[in-house]
Automatic annotation (TrEMBL):
Cofactor(s) in the UniProt record: Zn(2+)
Domain Alcohol dehydrogenase-like N-terminal residue range list: 35-153
Record keyword NAD present: yes
Keywords recorded for this protein, A-Z: Metal-binding, NAD, Oxidoreductase, Zinc
Gene3D superfamilies: Medium-chain alcohol dehydrogenases, catalytic domain, NAD(P)-binding Rossmann-like Domain
Assigned protein family: Belongs to the zinc-containing alcohol dehydrogenase family.
GO terms, molecular function: formaldehyde dehydrogenase (NAD+) activity; zinc ion binding
Protein name: Glutathione-independent formaldehyde dehydrogenase
Organism: Halomonas cerina
NCBIfam families linked to this entry: fdhA_non_GSH
The Alcohol dehydrogenase-like C-terminal domain, residue ranges: 197-265
Keyword hit for Acyltransferase: no
Amino acid sequence: MSAANRGVVYKGPGEVAVESIAYPELALGHRKCDHGVILKVVTTNICGSDQHMVRGRTTAPSGLVLGHEITGVVIEAGRDVEFIKPGDLVSVPFNIACGRCRNCKEGRTGICLNVNPSRPGAAYGYVDMGGWVGGQTEYVMVPYADFNLLKFPDADQAMEKIKDLTLLSDIFPTGFHGCVTAGVGPGSTVYIAGAGPVGLAAAVSAQLLGAACVIVGDMIEERLAQARSFGCETLDLTLEGDMADRIEAILGEREVDAFVDCVGFEAHACGCNHGKEAPATVLNSAMSLTRAGGQIGIPGLYVTEDPGAADEAAKHGALSMRFGLGWAKSHSFHTGQCPVMQYHRPLMQAILFGKVNIADAVNVKMITLDEAPKGYADFDGGAAKKFVIDPHGSVAA
């Protein structure tokens, strides 16, 4: 087996490159990782969360190997791996979880206590998330394999739907989690803030959960058109006008039952000020537009350190929120990483049995590993696409 490997590497603000990197080993620092596997990567996706780092909006160091959305074939398994075998085609949750700590045993795998010495929770190829090597690569190591990995029951069937199944590693469960934590159910009216890939995945998830009306707001017409392509109502947030008035024109009511923030800390103001960054604007809109007693799901990313923020408070994650309004309306807020393992198996079934076409909804665009830097640039420019890297030409073949 060749010991060569290549990956997408963060070089500095606005720059990524495809470079030769170390071939993965079944090791954690200086000790063996007998519970891990090495994957030949079949698909690995570019995520909006990656873009925060690439734009220089985090403390990510130069040289970080990117990528936390991974699907691959097992080519080597550690001595202690019992149930995952070489040849298995698997989805990798972006959360790295030990399966042994209190939080993992409670199903809260996004905040595992043992995989990151700095804070609860870890992810592949991400700043402050444990130093794990990312998976926008040809080969990658995955620890705690028996616990973490979702094996597809039939590899040939899975490859036929790989453009959908690749989204199980993050954005489909994340969008679904946003809707679940916002209380979306049969007959709900839902507002989704943001029509990027996670926002579109949340919109599809709301429909899957039985929502009566899903409204998606964004500032990019191409992304709004993508939301309309599968039956969503849309709001162009570059236009002036009171949002409650515009929601009333759609629903006959000025508030929604459920609100999902799929934008996060790089949000911009609406209307005539839409070019100006306003990091708390989505959260404040959520409290204004959600009915009393409603729920607000926040899968959008918020960080503790944002060196590129417009004001000093926001540089340390301190945002100017109208929290008293949310308190007065008895809102509930749910934040944090999606615990992917709570959702990836049932969402896999929904894909395999044809209940959802998530790849069409988020407009998957396959690219080669060498095309990754252009994919990052196009995505940053607002392309209404979900870029999925095919490092070995497995999907093209």
